[in-house]
Amino acid sequence: MVEIELENITKTYGKNLALKDISFVIKDKEYFIILGPTGAGKTTLLKIIAGLERPDSGKVLFDGKDVTAKSPGERNLGFMFENYALFPHMNLVENVAYSGRVHARDKEMTKTLVDQVLMMTLLTGRDDALPEELSGGMKQRVALCRALMNLEQTRLLILDEPLKALDAGLRMNLREELLLMAKSKQLELTVVHVTNEEQEAMMVADRIALMNQGEIIQIGTPHEIYYVPKDLFVANFLSEINYFEGICIKNETPLWDIHQKSVQKDKFYAEIHEGSSPMLLDLGFDSQFAACVKNDVFEQINHGEKILLVVRANHMKLRLGDRLIDKRNGFIGKILRRKFMGVFYRFEVSIKVKEKEKKVIVTIPATTEIHEKFLEDSEVTIYFPIELGMVFKYPGEQTIQDILKLE
Predict the structure, then answer these.
(1) Which of 36, 88, 177, 213 is the most exposed place for a label (fewest CB within 10 A)?
(2) Rounded CA gap, 307 and 93, in Å?
(3) Domain ranges of the chain
(4) CA-CA distances (angstroms) from residue 58 to 67, 69, 77, 89, 100?
(5) Left if phi > 0, otherwise alpha if psi is -120 to 50, otherwise beta: which for 132?
(6) What is the per-residue pLDDT for 267?
(7) ∠ at Cα 98 (170, 118), nearest 5°?
(8) With respect to CATH, is domain 4-227 assigned 3.40.50.150?
């Protein structure tokens, strides 16, 4: 059993506040991702968990025992450094087998384990290669193998951007292998994994802690963080978004049935409706808009108060021509640009909001029809299901500019 609890962790470097009063629990056997932009404090937090750094204040507890003052060796964990930290005078196999020597493990058992991890990471056949003879991606895989070899002493694996230097295909395969290994009956690991790649986080995490500027902004499952983001920063970090400024309308009669659920009957849409209320929105168009808003947020926003509506690019729907008569939450626009992205097309659509042009991003799966008919300069209707609009209290123009990096 390895459960990690952080209590009010704060860390500064000179005048720079790296971590600010961080508290949360990582459950036993959980694959826990620490996600955030560069400079958010992710690696500092990871080093404090591992014992490589001491917090200025606060406690680190493993299974309820205070380990704040203990060294990394005393914490018995497998750690993979972002900069690999390989021994330059040892060849590939010697680097991987190092923990077996340190812990006096049986030589045959060590060899068996080395062969297994090398096969998993596609490193077989380079046994005698020194680190200087390996590519960056291969060095990263060797470092990962060495961390895995230390797990006979613990069930805690700590990974600092373990797949950063790998090509896309290998990165995808190793994500799957890491998750399968962590959840296997033989190991049942607790994994703490730092990354700034949202796709990597969504693929492997049981839960995600999203950090920014030394603080934890939101902790939740991938589903919770993606579909119920706490604020604009969280919404924007996980995918490309569109945003619209508007007004909350509570004292007017809707011109359409905003309580009617979308035609999708799956569990996902039903979950969104649970604990939510439809909110009528004025976005500056002739038609009314609406979105399902969590009840606690719904109660916080008053009639006539300014709001921000956010819709992910992949939640926008696209139809040729003017379809507003049968599509709610819709806009008429013109395709400015389209880009084939492999499995999907990315469209830039121009719409007019209060006589001003606004660009809306739409991403949809690539099909023959999309390729042949949805051409640049085509008139289109873009719209979004009521369940997929995200409404926030208006955060202020400066906050919007800072988060979305607008000029």
Answers:
(1) 88
(2) 58
(3) 4-227, 241-404
(4) 11, 11, 21, 39, 34
(5) alpha
(6) 73
(7) 25
(8) no
- Contacting residues for 169 by C-beta, under 8 A, at least 6 apart: none
How many beta carbons lie within 10 A of that of residue 292, not counting itself? 25
Predicted TM-score (pTM) above 0.85: yes
pLDDT in tens, 194-204: 999 999 999 99
DSSP 138: H
Measured between its terminal Cα atoms, the distance across the chain in Å is 50
pLDDT tens figures, 288-308: 999 999 999 999 999 999 999
Instruction: Give CA separation, 188 vs 105, 157, 182, 183, in Å.
Output: 21, 11, 6, 5
241-404 placed in CATH 2.40.50.100: yes
Per-residue confidence (pLDDT) for residue 392, from 0 to 100: 96
Burial (Cβ within 10 Å: 0-12, 13-18, ≥19) of residue 251: exposed
Q: How far apart are CA 175 and CA 184, in angstroms?
A: 14
Taking the chain (407 residues) in consecutive chunks of 10 residues, what is each chunk's mean pLDDT? Answer: 93 94 96 95 94 96 94 81 78 83 70 80 83 81 78 76 75 80 80 92 96 97 94 96 96 87 71 87 92 94 97 97 93 96 96 90 95 96 94 94 82
> Cα–Cα distance between 227 and 239 in angstroms, integer?
11
Encoding tokens for residue 404?
Answer: 């979305």
